[in-house]
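ok so I'm stuck.
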Amino acid sequence: MDDNVLKQISVFAENKPGRLANIADKLKSADVNIRAFNIAEAGEFGIIRMVVDNPDNAYEALHNTGFTVSETDVLGIEMEDVPGSLSNIAKNLGEHGINIDYSYAFVTKTEKALLIVRVDDIKGALKVLDSADFRLVDMEEIKHL
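replied:
not stuck anymore, here's the structure
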């Protein structure tokens, strides 16, 4: 697919003390650095979503130690760290019929913000974002954030 499509690692895990530490230890042992991170709680279980510097190693390390893990295509959209930036992205995607399934964001050391999004039409989103001059990050940039 496109160079600007990122691989997100998702882990389905029990919502109990020590579970996150165990997952983080597995990634540490595999020399995987977490660059963006989100947990969605669903009662006794949770979904941990993360963009990492080496998704293949992360997947293998977690899968081989018994975790339920998957890879998902997501986009990393750079935005100004000012009011209205998220609105602008969401409006552009929505006006073209592209739904944001979920997202999470963080501020980078360059004083920009990075929005990670999962959309229902990734090819369409790439076209919309490109035509609106939004900058997407690639895996090489993720490694150096």
